[in-house]
Amino acid sequence: MLLEAFSEYDLILSHRSVCRLQLGDPTKRDPKLPETVEERRDRILKSLGFPTAVELGHTLVAWAEWHEWAIATMTKAVVMLEGGPDTLRLHTKNSRFITCVVSPLHDTEVGANPGNAFHIHSVSVNNASDFDTGSPAPKKTWANGEDGRLMDMGKWLRSSTNPSFAGLVSVVYHIQDTGMAFTHVAPVYHSRAAQPLSDLNAKVCRDVVGMIKGTTNAGSILRVEKDDGVVPIPGVLRRKKKDWQWRSIFGAGCLLASWDHMGALMPPSTTKSGLKPQALFEKFATL
Questions:
Q1: Burial 58-79 (b: 16+ CB within 10 A, else e)
Q2: Last residue in a domain, options 169, 191, 213
Q3: What is the pLDDT of residues 166-212, one digit of tens each?
Q4: Could you say which DSSP state residue 268 is in?
Q5: What is the DSSP string of 218-232?
Q6: What's the pLDDT tens digit per position in 218-235?
Q7: In what order do the strands lie in the sheet with 97-104?
Q8: From CA 209, how far away is CA 34, in angstroms rounded?
Q9: Which domain holds residue 150?
Q10: Of 128, 159, 191, which residue is a domain's last?
Q11: How many folded domains does the chain comprise?
Q12: pTM, rounded to two decimals
C-alpha cells in the first residue's frame, strides 16, 4: 500500500523551520525495475501539485498558522472528550497525541490561497498503538518528536504563570493517502468542566469540532478580536499585492450579518446540543 511505502518520509515541523528530507535521484534507472519508494512519493506529490515534500510541509505550516485558533480549539474539545489533559500521559515518553487527518486541495486557484490549502477529515486523540496497522507515519512522526516535546514542555512549566497549564501535546498532521506526516506541539490546559463530561457538555464539545471543521472546510478562517475573545469571527483571505489579508464575512454588504444570522439559516439538526453558533461558542468557553 502507498500509505506504508511512504512511512519513512516523515517531516517534523516547527514554527521556525521545516526539516529537509534526504531525497534520492531516480532519474537514471532501468524502466523495467519496480517503482522505488522515492519515485512513488514523487509521483504522489506531483499529483497533489507539490514539487517536493518540503514544499508540502511549508504549505501545511502556512495553513496551520492561519487556522491557529481553530486547531487549538478543536484540540481542547477532543481532549475534553477523552477525559481531559490528565489522560494524555504528557509527562511520559508514551504520551497520547492529537491526529489531524487532512488532504491538500487539488484546485490550483484555491490551493494558492494558504487559508484554503487543506481539507480537514478528522481530529482525534490517539495512542501510538492505534497505528500498529495501516500507515505507521503518524506513530513514527510522534515518536521522533517526543524528546523535543518533553524538553520544550519543561521550559514551559518553569516559565508559565498560568495554573491551568497542563503541558504540551503533539499535534500530528497525517496527509491522507500519502503516508506522510508532520507534527508540532501545542499547549493544553485544564478545563473548568468536571470529568466525566455531562451529556450536554459532551455534545457541546462535539458540536464545536463539527462547527469548526465545517466553516474551515468551507473556506473560512476563524479569529477572535481580542486575546480573551471567546466567539470567533469567520473571514476569508484576499490578495493585496504580495500579501494575504483576512477579511470578515460578517457585516454590512456581506453575505451574512452575524452568527445569529447564520444560525437562523441552519436546520435544528445541525447541532446535537441544540445551540446555535453564537451560543455554542459562548457555552464552550465556560467549560
A1: bbbbebbebbeebbebbbbbbb
A2: 191
A3: 999 999 999 998 888 999 999 999 999 999 999 999 999 999 999 99
A4: G
A5: TT-EEE-SSTT--S-
A6: 889 999 988 778 999 999
A7: 118-126, 97-104, 165-175, 180-189
A8: 43
A9: 1-191
A10: 191
A11: 2
A12: 0.85
